[in-house]
Amino acid sequence: MAMEELTKYTIESLLAETVTLPSLPASVQNILSLIENPNTKLADLSHAISLDPSISFKLLRLVNSAYYGLGQKVTSIEHAIVLLGTKVIRNLVVTATVFSQMGKMAKSMVIHSVAAGVAMDAVVSVGPLKEVFAKGDTGFVFGLLHDIGKMFLMEFLPKHWAGVCYCAKEGGYGSWIAIEQQIIGVDHAQIGGKISEEWKLSEDLCMAVLYHHEPWKVDDGRQRLICASLCAADYIVRASGLFAYEHELHPLQEEVWTMAGLNNRLLVDIINLYFDKHAFIEELMNYAGT
């Protein structure tokens, strides 16, 4: 496949000439707006979520999954909000929405995304990130969404995506990010960052998606720690054999471990926790596209 046959884009030209960024459903936007409003009543938020049967169903399944281990059966949205708080509910609503789209994706992509969520949870639990992570944020959502730009490329630029996969398989073109930039002109992290902004996700999450392969480009120390931690979690998943695409190559800079504040002892604990929760990956995958 000749790379010159395909149009190259900038972020601006891609959005102006080709496609519109995917938007969250109106019902989800309403739910998130209510969560952001400090004057919203619990009953009003619960009612808004209940009006979307798909989100309600997935939300309750997630809350009651063994992964969250609440130890009690949650049967109502209002109960879930009381137990977990609005920030966690917000993240779960976004998770449920993304899961609704994942049925269109290759199984390897779904497995990798879910596993990255599990790995990022482990990094947050064990590493120094837990001291600075915003209250209510969950590592799982950060990991789940880190490759959302790839979902976009697969759906809206299938020829370019096929070209990236072909070159990665053939070898000799550099890292996956380098191949995307050669063929498309932009990479999945840049696109994912734009989607995160469009969805009005937290600044921390937007930055993490944008810089999860290049945390050294982040000036703010706290956000650099988050981005480096996500980069490390992504690497752990790939090292365990769960690739979004089997020929993917993302060399890890040694400095990432230092940026993430992870030494060998912490890394052993993180890997053990990741594999302890490995059994939940299949369970969480069952929610994708269902």
- Please state the structural category: mainly alpha
Question: Which percent range fits the helix content?
Answer: 55-70%
Largest sheet: none
Please report the first level of CATH classification, the CATH class of the domain at 3-21 and 105-285.
Mainly Alpha
Distance between the termini: 36 Å
Query: Compute the gyration radius: what is it?
Result: 19 Å
Poorly predicted regions: none
* CATH homology group of the domain at 3-21 and 105-285: Hypothetical protein af1432
Assign an overall shape: globular
So how many helices?
Answer: 17
Residue-averaged pLDDT: 86
Order of helices and strands: HHHHHHHHHHHHHHHHH
Looking at the structure, the CATH topology of the domain at 3-21 and 105-285 is: Hypothetical protein af1432
Gross CATH architecture of the domain at 3-21 and 105-285: Orthogonal Bundle
Q: Which strand-content bin applies to the residues?
A: under 5%
What does this structure look like?
The chain is mainly α. It has a domain at 3-21 and 105-285: Hypothetical protein af1432. The protein is built from 17 helices and no strands. The protein has helices spanning 11-17, 26-36, 42-50, 53-63, 77-84, 86-101, 107-126, 139-145, 148-156, 158-170, 176-183, 188-198, 203-210, 221-239, 255-259, 264-276, 279-285. α7 packs antiparallel against α8, α7 (107-126) crosses α16 and α13 packs across α14. The longest helix is centred in the middle third of the chain and has 20 residues, at 107-126. The protein is globular, with a radius of gyration of 19 Å.
